[in-house]
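re: ur question from yesterday

yeah so i grabbed the chain u mentioned. its 91 aa long if i counted rite. heres the sequnce exactly as i have it in my notes:
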Amino acid sequence: MQMQASRHFPSWLAEHNLSIGLSTYEAGKLILVGRTSGGRLAANERSFTRAMGLWGDEQTLWAATGHQLWRFENVLQNGQIEDDADRLYVP
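ran it thru and got these structure tokens back, copy pasting raw so excuse formatting
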């Protein structure tokens, strides 16, 4: 996946200590955008039929699709890092 953002976007994410989740109905994608420990943008995308909505907190991520509601739970402990990520959500 290629990404373009303003040059201050990664530092804005760091300043507010957050990542952003997006859903794309027509493309059927759920996308999570964050930053690496080196301060670079990172994104992960997954395909779902009719990805319609997304909600999350520190431990749980909910995704609504055309006919299903998916719940993903973070399996990493506080302070644990896996492949430069501090959250690993699994269904």
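noticed a couple things. The chain has one domain: 9-90. also The first strand starts at residue 20 and ends at 24.
anyway ttyl
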